[in-house]
Specification:
alpha/beta, Aspartate Aminotransferase, domain 2, 7-stranded mixed sheet, 3-stranded antiparallel sheet, 38% helix, 15% strand, globular, binds pyridoxal-5'-phosphate
Length: 367
């Protein structure tokens, strides 16, 4: 059996020809940039989140950079995030001109260890970026209290957590801004690169609007330093097409995760801790074992598309060598980078496929 990580055909459903006809019209009519299709998706995604303003961008990386720029964060400022995230979180901080400061990961949740924030904050700190990693929402209530005490912003990296909830409230709606990616690998996938900034703050939304369009307030009137980063109309149409099914997909992902947890419960492995008040959306299902590399080889040989996300924590990446971080500085992030393995998780994964993957993992451990 082959167990793949993605099934794009399935995401479009049986009526895909209707979408293709619309995309054809858009192509032939020249509806490409900041068209009503973009506006429609921004409004629909705002309704989905329960926020007033969504502004589409080229990528999730740009969304984070633009949100920081719109908050006036740049050169000389520090932004705190976690050592175990995808490269983009930290690259975005640097795109805004600010300096990234890291805290370690929590070994049980694989999220930011919020207890380290106090000692990471300095007089130059302007924001914290928690990453809702692998689709698990970061506990936001204590984090918001910490940020408030220091008088700094919270910008959420929700690139892996579309629709995840804490006590019924969506990830990405707790901080001053939530940043999303719709890269094809994500739970809500465009047909190329795409991202968005979401906020309830009108002034911030207006700033984001200008910054994504070269700082333009009205035609030929460029009033702030900006970049050129807008959500493509085609991508917006594709995203609107898929959005109505996102919550159903998230429950299906949770069902797959709970099958894995049950079938592997007696093995010497662990998983991202779950909490009853949250809805994890399982962008990735992470299994933790010191025998990670051997298990991955075993699974790949058996036709299971098991991958490692992410093998190198931020502080050891060459692209950030000038930040001066050292090996051993964030030991939990380093250990997770060596011990986490992603088992395939997709909404349409069948019980037979999950069983097959689970049996392959069990046979590796001689169970
Ligand atoms: C994917 C991702 C991003 C960046 O999104 P792009 O659209 O690829 O630029 C940022 N942060 C995290 C945690 C991600 O997974």
């Amino acid at each position: 059996m082959k167990v793949k990580r993605y099934n794009y055909r399935q995401q479009f459903g049986p009526q895909v020809d209707l979408l293709l006809a619309e995309l054809k019209d858009m192509l032939l009519d020249g509806r490409y940039i900041l068209t009503p299709e973009v506006d429609d998706f921004e409004k629909a995604y705002g309704r989905f989140l329960g926020l007033r303003y969504v502004r589409g961008t080229n990528t999730g990386t740009d969304a984070i950079a633009i949100a920081l720029m719109a908050l006036g964060i740049g050169r000389g400022d520090e932004v705190v995030t976690q050592a175990n995230t995808f490269n983009a979180t930290v690259t975005a901080i640097r795109m805004a001109g600010a300096s990234p400061v890291l805290v370690d990961a929590d070994p049980r949740t694989f999220l930011m260890d919020s207890s380290q924030i106090d000692s990471a904050v300095t007089s130059r700190t302007r924001a914290i970026i928690p990453v809702h990693l692998f689709g698990k929402p970061t506990p936001m209530v204590p984090l918001l209290a910490t940020a408030k005490r220091h008088g700094i912003h919270v910008v959420e990296d929700a690139a892996q957590a579309h629709g995840a909830r804490i006590d019924g409230r969506r990830a990405g709606t707790f901080g001053i801004a939530g940043c999303f990616s719709f890269h094809p690998s994500k739970n809500l996938a465009a047909a190329g690169d795409a991202g968005a900034v979401a906020t309830d703050d009108l002034q911030l939304a207006q700033k984001v609007d200008m910054i994504r369009s070269l700082g333009q307030q009205s035609q030929n009137e460029h009033v702030v330093a900006g970049m050129n980063s807008r959500l493509d109309a085609f991508q917006a149409r594709v995203l609107s097409w898929k959005l109505p099914r996102l919550d159903e997909w998230s429950s299906q992902r949770r069902a797959v995760a709970s099958w894995y947890r049950q079938r592997l419960a007696d093995l010497p492995v662990s998983f991202q801790e779950e909490h009853p008040t949250e809805e994890h959306v399982y962008h990735l299902f992470q299994l933790r074992t010191p025998r990670r590399d051997a298990l991955q080889r075993h699974l790949v040989q058996a036709g299971v598309d098991a991958v490692v996300r992410y093998p190198m924590p931020i502080h050891l990446q060459k692209s950030f060598a000038d930040c001066g971080w050292k090996a051993g500085e964030f030991p939990v992030a380093e250990q997770l980078a060596q011990e986490l393995l992603c088992l395939p998780v997709r909404p349409d994964l069948s019980a037979a496929e999950v069983d097959y993957v689970a049996n392959c993992v069990r046979s590796f451990f001689g169970a």
